[in-house]
Specification:
261 residues; 5-stranded antiparallel β-sheet; 5 strands; 48% helix; 13% strand
Length: 261
């Protein structure tokens, strides 16, 4: 009996050890399975995590390219002739013509450039070439002018395209006048000054240019032929005396009046 009683605790201990061993093995198996699951999950999540990074990288590159392509945020400098008008021309004309208010001083209103293309009736490309030259000269896209009535002597019907024109105002007007006075006119052949007969009596001045190549923007190798253009400068002057004095202060090289003896 004693032996049996002694053996019972041994069996119980052995059973407890067996249960502990099984529990430890199950816990180890569970840990291994959990680690494998975590590794598998990480392996599955890794490409998903990288995809947004790649997309973000592409988006970042796109944003950088867009930032490089964006125009400068700084505004262009104001026209030089406009600053000259406010600081020099206005005080001078107020002193010479005894204006009581600076707003009475005449100023530039607009500049109109016009090219007549009579050969457009027979040459379809002439209008396109003239419009391209006028765009380069003015920096603005011109419009096509059409005949208002039919003229049998010139073989023109109402509605036919006969020319191209552009109207400049604001900063482009001052920039064009600056280039015309200081760059284009001195390049004319045998230039001796502008005649004063171009005034119309209401403060507007018209000038005819025989060759468009006097403007440095025109490349002689890209034009199809030599063309002339008409430049009309409209001012708010009440008479020709005020208009011609205004243009002289802007730098227009007029021929001086001579008094015959």
């Amino acid at each position: 009996m004693l032996d049996e009683e002694r053996q019972q605790p041994d069996d119980v201990n052995e059973s407890e050890e067996t249960v502990d061993a099984i529990a430890e093995s199950e816990s180890l198996a569970a840990q291994e399975a959990g680690e494998e699951g975590v590794e598998a999950g990480e392996q599955q999540e890794t490409p998903n995590r990288q995809r947004p990074a790649r997309a973000g990288g592409r988006a970042g590159r796109g944003r950088s390219d867009d930032a490089e392509r964006q125009p400068p945020t700084e505004p262009p400098p104001p026209p030089r002739l406009y600053e000259q008008f406010k600081t020099e021309i206005v005080p001078t004309m107020m002193r010479e013509f005894s204006y009581g208010n600076p707003m009475e001083v005449p100023r530039l209103q607009k500049i109109v450039l016009n090219i007549g293309v009579g050969e457009a009736m027979t040459n379809g490309r002439a209008m396109e070439a003239a419009g391209r030259d006028l765009t380069v000269i003015s920096g603005q896209k011109p419009i096509i002018t059409k005949a208002r009535r039919s003229v049998a002597g010139f073989k023109i019907r109402e509605g036919n395209a006969i020319g191209t024109t552009v109207t400049l105002r604001g900063a482009r007007m001052y920039h064009f006048l600056d280039r015309l006075v200081n760059t284009a006119l001195p390049r004319m052949r045998d230039f001796r000054g502008l005649p004063r007969r171009g005034l119309d009596g209401r403060g507007n001045f018209s000038l005819g240019i025989r060759e468009q190549i006097i403007f440095p923007e025109i490349d002689y190798n890209d034009i199809d032929k030599i063309r002339g253009l008409q430049v009309t400068i409209a001012t708010t002057a009440k008479n020709d005396t005020e208009a011609i004095r205004l243009l002289e202060l802007y730098g227009m090289p007029f021929i001086k009046d001579t008094v015959e003896a």
